[in-house]
Amino acid sequence: MKRDSTCMEDDRVDQRTCLICGDRATGLHYGIISCEGCKGFFKRSICNKRVYRCSRDKNCVMSRKQRNRCQYCRLLKCLQMGMNRKAIREDGMPGGRNKSIGPVQISEEEIERIMSGQEFEGEANMSWSNNGDSDHSSPGNGVSESNQPSPVSTPSSRSVELNGFAALRDQYIGTPVSTHYQYLPHLFSYSAHSALVPPQARSLDPQSHSLINQLVSAEDLEPLGTPMLIEDGYKVTQAELFALLCRLADELLFRQIAWIKKLPFFCELSIKDYTCLLSSTWQELILLSSLTVYSKQIFGDLADVTSKYSPSDDELHRFSEEGMEVMERLIYLFRKFNQLKVSNEEYACMKAINFLNQDIRGLTNASQLEQLNKRYWYVCQDFTEYKYPHQPNRFPDLMMCLPEIRYIAGKMVNVPLEQLPLLFKAVLHSCKTSVSKE
């Protein structure tokens, strides 16, 4: 019996390796066979007009384990192998365009112009954070993969006019756009002079207000019930701390399952898709909630418990490089969230956007998920611009945290279970210390 041609094509892809780093390829991305990681890295680099630097000889080895060590050489190889930047959607949203276009060959001079940032000259430079940076993308684009110093990003002055935004809002939110929306900037792109223009007071779109209230109502914002009190002088063992972490994870997961049933769009999706989404994102949802609405307990009560745990020399020596990377990224992300002081409304929107990931394999209705994702994307943007008019970069800052959460959650799976107590001790101690110094 002949197999379906699509299945045969999928099998061939499964047997292929990424032309950039050698990892398992997931398909044809921007003209060449590549993995999800390199696909997302290339898109973020081009969309955000990243300019990287190589501290070596511009010939760093690209492999699955070493691809994050030099962003310059990774982007250089993407261009040399024929990744097509014209296949990336200009609005930065998930889903490429011109999918039929294959690899492209560009001259060394053009590659040099891209790598040096000459193509972006005349546009103002902007850095995401003073504390360092990671690669980021819009939700649904894959994961962040960087531990390099903050690259320079350059905003574009390109904007979408009123009529285009009105159509988008009518489609995804269902309410005509208010007259106070004159332009919709690209997600990571604000005009160079925007910071000089005083923000104009405006109202929140009524439909945005209604949808946000529905999302917040679906949340269980009560304190966690898992006991995290400990007597003075008691020494916590590795087994006891691991058992406590498991209980916390159980409670947090249970809350996510209950949350799904209260979502305003619960009846719009199939049970199969909900199961697929939850199985792929539950770690991300738990991590997001731990860093925001439950952070006082996690970085307070749980930190007190972990401080009573003393790892052995053997545990310290066995701590993996994977664990070190997760630790560094968690500390950085904690500081970012602590700086932003995410509101319950923003948290509820971020959580819904992260959950509605149409790029997950096995979904039956990805297009419907994309529409829902965009709906809450615009709702969140509307709310942050209304609530925080003097923080024009707040919305992109929030959105750029999501791929980092996705990446960290994926990395934590690879940390050996016996190393989790030490990982949590190190992270919570560092975060609590940094807060006390502020």
From TrEMBL:
GO terms for cellular component: nucleus. Residues 149-158 have a biased composition (Low complexity). Residues 207-438 form the NR LBD domain. Residues 15-90 form the Nuclear receptor domain. Belongs to the nuclear hormone receptor family. NR6 subfamily. Its main location: nucleus. It is found in: Nucleus. InterPro entries: NHR-like_dom_sf, Nucl_hrmn_rcpt_lig-bd, Nuclear_hormone_rcpt_NR3, Nuclear_hrmn_rcpt, Znf_hrmn_rcpt, Znf_NHR/GATA. One of its GO terms (molecular function) is DNA-binding transcription factor activity. Residues 126-148 have a biased composition (Polar residues). Residues 124-158 are annotated as: Disordered. CDD domains: NR_DBD_GCNF_like (cd07169), NR_LBD_DHR4_like (cd06953). This is Nuclear receptor subfamily 6 group A member 1. It comes from Bambusicola thoracicus (Chinese bamboo-partridge). Keywords: DNA-binding, Metal-binding, Nucleus, Receptor, Transcription, Transcription regulation, Zinc, Zinc-finger.
